[in-house]
Each structure stands twice: as structure tokens, then as C-alpha cells.
Amino acid sequence: MFEIGAVYGFSNHNVSNDVVVAVCVRKSPVRLLRLNAITSSKVSEYVSSIKQSSPMLIGGPDLADKFFYIHRFSTLSNASRIGKDLYIGGNVSEVFILDKHEKLAPSLIRFYVGCYDFDTNDINTEQFKKLGHISQADVFLPFDQIREYWEQVYANYLIDSSNLINATSISEKNLEIVSSSRSFLKSKLWIRPWLFFSILMNAISLINVGIDLKIVTPRWLSFLSFFLDFVETISRYMTYPFQLIFNIWNIQIPEIVSSTTLLTTIIIGSLRQAKNESDKFFKKEFYSVSSERFRYQRLMYISGLIGNYAMGFLIALVYSGIMWAFMQINSFVFPIIFVALLNFLLLILLFLKGETIENQYRMQVFKFYICAVFFIAFLIAFVNYSGLQFFSST
Q1: How far apart are CA 272 and CA 307, in angstroms?
Q2: Is 224 left (phi over 0), alpha (psi -120 to 50) or beta?
């Protein structure tokens, strides 16, 4: 059933709604290398003897402690031909020599960690439930085009329907998810702890900024006042190191600058994290790969989350610093303008539409985030107003 050099698509039971596109490099036993799972790591991070800076690809969950390479070097000894001007393996010492002389261009060789290695009797298992032959393949696609290209191929013309059982394209499922806000909410992809925390912090920060600008009432119920004070304290601590520096010149950082710094940090950090979430959702690297690289995924996720908000903080410092500089001209008008620009940015995101499935998913996350922020801010203000009215009447 499998042919050397042919490319196949099948479902990946390890990751929900994922489709594997892989090239067959051996028939007995069958060995496949996945083409549509690119990592953010460089080849040199896996193989120290190779200095190539190209990304490593994940070939599959089997033999995860080994790496493989597909190339166009016909003179490489012990290499096996798998297609026209296409080879697998070969003398690794010669590969190191080619790398030393900077001959390993991404258009000539690709490296993979792990593979699919199985007996033909395993084809009837759940893992190969949706097996279909792809009529065309390009192993040496530019790295930034790999994911989108194979997604389109799988959606449009890769499948020989006579070989496919219960065919449902991952692209069709993803399109259904991002087609409307209702479908997105039903998919429960918005249930993320960081997202709920960011929404709450953003809403309270927005109210705090309104209080600093004297747009929002300073009178709050005691339990709501506690949360407002808590968030305001966080904003002060964020700018505290800079306040120590400005104390040398007896300069006090205004409350509105600290509050805007926190608000901007949350907004930018959340948008960056939403982008990372969409990348992870559509990239679908193999979490079942047991190499040392993937043993600390939770730690990597947390470090990525912190990194996104740290980047948001740096951008927020620049933004708030510019606002503070303009405040020397007019300390009332310019803070309102800069805060209004932040809100205008959020409102613009509500009306943007992504051209690709990935961008459409990202836009759905943005829309949910923005609507939730304004809804929570309104809800807090409404509860406070109702509470003040009740206690004043009694």
C-alpha cells in the first residue's frame, strides 16, 4: 500500500483534530517522516556537531532519540534514493563535512527528530483511520510556508476518496470553529486560565485609569475598592524601580502613568499570548515525542507566558513614557488621548478579519477578549452603582 517517496495524510490520534502529512522513506517495516510539524528550535540545538540554523522538524513519535535527514546530495555515500533528486540518510560524517563548508542549505537538506516506524499490520489501528494518498509533495518548502501549504493541500486536493474512511478535513473543522463567534464559544477554546485572569485585570485596570482621569466615580463599595486598590498597588510596584531613580531629582511618577503602564502591559501581553495560542493550536507539534527536549513543556509554556507579558511591559514603558512626556504640555488632555488610543486599538480588532484560518482563529480570541473586558468593566460599575444606591437609600 505504501510506496517509497509517496506522501500520505492521516489522522493523529495523539492530538485531537490533527492531520499528519508524511513521506514514506522505507517500506519494510514502513517508515514515514512527517512534513508539516516544524519546531521553533534549531537543528544545532539537537545535533551539536551541526551548526545549521534552520528549524528542526518533528518526524514522528517513534525513535525520538534519533534524527533523520532528507536531501538532494546524490554523491553522499550510503544514501537511499526515494524520489527524483531526493535521498534519505547517508554517511553522517560527510554531512558534518558539508556543514563545515556551509553546504547544507535549507533547499538541499531537511532534518527531522523521530519518525513513524510501524509494521504494515498496524495500518488498521485508530492512528491510520483516515489514510489518504497525496498526489504531490514538496519536501523543501520554505519553512514559513510549510503549515499553511499542507493545510490547503489537505483541504483541497490531497485525498484519494476511495482510500479514505470517514473523511473529515482538519481545515474544514477549523473553518467551522472560526466561522462565527457562536461556533468559537461552543468549541470552548476560549477557556484558558491566563485569558480569564487577563480579562479581569484589564477590566479593573481600565476602571482605575478612569478614576485617575476623573472620568469614573471615586466612590466604590468596600469589596470592590479592595480589588481596585490591589490592582493599583501592582501598577505602583511595576514602576517602583523607576521611581527610585527619579527620586534623585525629586520627580514623582503620576498615578495615571503607572496605571496606563499596567493597562498597556496586560493588553499587549494578552494579544501576544493569543497569537502564541493560535500558533500552537494550528501547529500541533507532537506532544507524545519523548525526547529530552519535550519533557518540560509546562515549564516552557509558563516561561513563554511570562515572556509575552514581559515584552508587553517593555512596550508599555515606552508608551507610558511618551504619554508622560506629552503630559508636560497638558497634564489633562494627553492622558485621555493616549488611553483613548488604547481603547481604539481594541475596538479596531473587533472588525478585523483574518485571511487564513489561523488568523481567523486569532481574531475570534481577540474579539472574545475585548468584549469580555468591556462587559466585566460594565458589570463591576453596575454592581457598584446599584450597591451605592441601595446603601444610600437605607
Answers
A1: 10
A2: alpha
Cell of 44: 544545532
Phi first, then psi, for residue 283 (nearest 5°) are -80, -40
Q: Cell numbers for 331, please give them.
A: 497634564
Query: Across the strands, what pairs with 377?
Result: none
Is the separation of the CB atoms in 212 and 256 below 8 Å? yes
The number of domains in the chain is: 2
The verdict on residue 177 lying in a domain is no
Neighbour-count burial for 86-97, b at 16+ CB within 10 Å, e otherwise: bbbbbeeeebee
Judge contact between 46 and 68, C-beta under 8 A: no
| Contact between 70 and 23 (Cβ < 8 Å) | yes
3-state secondary structure 286-332: CCCCCCHHHCCHHHHHHHHHHHHHHHHHHHHHHHHHHHHHHHCCCCC
Domain extent for 285: 182-393
Q: Which of 141, 168, 195 is the endpoint of a domain?
A: 168
Please choose, from the candidates 88, 58, 56, 46, the residue with its C-alpha nearest in 3D space to the C-alpha of residue 71.
88
Q: What stretches of 75-217 adopt beta strand conformation (E)?
A: 80-83, 86-88, 109-118, 132-134
Report whether the peptide linkage leading into residue 29 is cis, meaning its omega lies within 30 degrees of zero.
Answer: yes
DSSP 162: G
Contacts of 237 by beta carbon, 8 Å cutoff, 6+ apart: none
In a domain, 1, yes or no: no
Question: pLDDT digit of tens for each residue in the chain (394 aa)?
Answer: 677 877 777 765 555 456 677 888 888 778 888 888 888 788 888 887 888 788 888 888 888 888 899 998 988 888 888 887 889 998 888 888 888 888 888 888 999 988 888 765 555 555 555 555 555 566 777 777 676 666 665 554 333 333 333 333 334 445 455 556 776 777 666 777 888 889 999 999 999 999 998 888 888 988 889 999 999 999 999 999 999 999 999 999 999 999 999 999 999 998 888 877 766 655 433 333 333 444 455 677 788 889 999 999 999 999 999 999 999 988 888 898 998 998 888 778 767 765 555 666 777 788 888 889 999 999 999 999 898 888 877 6
Q: At what angle do helices 297-327 and 255-283 cross, to 10 degrees?
A: 150
Q: Which of 124, 139, 168 finishes a domain?
A: 168
